[in-house]
User: Which sequence fits this backbone?
């Protein structure tokens, strides 16, 4: 049951999407960071032990920190998408 708590779905992020970090990677889980995606490398994380399946590599500008960070896409949640369409697929 605990494993399902962190079950991840694939979300295709695009440059310009507004995102929020997942609470379980935040240094302050009650106040997660919000940011905008600056770049995306599709399947930037393949065959990584700590990621089930694969994930895109995203560069995010965090509004609160006023700095950028590169993360796997499975570490963030979509808040608002630039093109109005979000595509989700289950990671197998």
Assistant:
């Amino acid at each position: 049951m605990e494993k399902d708590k962190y079950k991840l779905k694939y979300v295709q992020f695009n440059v310009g999407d507004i995102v929020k970090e997942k609470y379980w990677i935040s240094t302050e889980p009650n106040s997660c960071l919000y940011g905008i995606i600056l770049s995306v490398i599709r399947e930037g994380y393949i065959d990584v032990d700590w990621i089930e399946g694969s994930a895109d590599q995203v560069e995010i500008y965090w509004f609160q920190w006023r700095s950028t960070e590169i993360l796997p896409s499975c570490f963030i949640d979509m808040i608002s998408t630039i093109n109005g369409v979000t595509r989700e697929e289950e990671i197998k």
